[in-house]
Design brief:
mainly beta, seven-stranded mixed sheet, four-stranded antiparallel sheet, 11 strands, 0% helix, globular
Length: 123
C-alpha cells in the first residue's frame, strides 16, 4: 500500500494550493478516500472524503473553499486523489494526510495513511 502526498507549502491568507496523493497497492472500498488534517495540539480531523460512487463530504469549516476529486484507474487500484484548497485561512494551517477508507459497520474509517504534507498559512 502506498499513499504519497505532495503539494503542501506556505501561502498567505486568501491564497490557494492543490494537494495530490498518489495511491496504489489497494483496491478502493465503497468508502473511498479522504483528506485529514492535524494541527499542533489538536486531534486529526476529516476534511473531505470521496466515495467510490463519487459522493463527496466536507467539514463545515472548509465547505465552499476546498474541492476534492480523484483520478483512478478503472479497476480502482491505482490513481491520484486531489484536494484544491482555495481562500486559505490561518486556521487551515496543519499537516494534511490522505487516507484509504474502509467500512466499519455503519461508518467509514481510515485504514491506510500517507506520510502527510505541511500547509502553513500566514500573512
Amino acid at each position: 500500500v502506498q499513499l504519497a502526498e505532495s503539494g503542501g507549502g506556505s501561502v498567505q491568507p486568501g491564497g490557494s494550493l492543490k494537494l495530490a496523493c498518489a495511491a496504489s497497492g489497494f483496491s478502493l472500498s465503497d468508502c473511498g478516500l479522504g483528506w485529514y488534517r492535524q494541527s499542533p495540539g489538536k486531534e486529526r480531523e476529516l476534511v473531505s472524503s470521496i466515495r467510490i460512487d463519487g459522493t463527496t463530504t466536507y467539514a463545515d469549516s472548509v465547505k465552499g473553499r476546498f474541492i476534492i476529486s480523484r483520478d483512478f484507474s478503472r479497476d480502482d487500484v491505482k490513481g491520484t486523489l486531489y484536494l484544491q484548497l482555495n481562500n486559505l485561512k490561518t486556521e487551515d494551517t496543519a499537516v494534511y494526510y490522505c487516507a484509504g477508507l474502509r467500512r466499519n459497520e455503519l461508518t467509514c474509517i481510515p485504514k491506510f495513511w500517507g506520510q502527510g504534507t505541511q500547509i502553513s498559512v500566514s500573512p
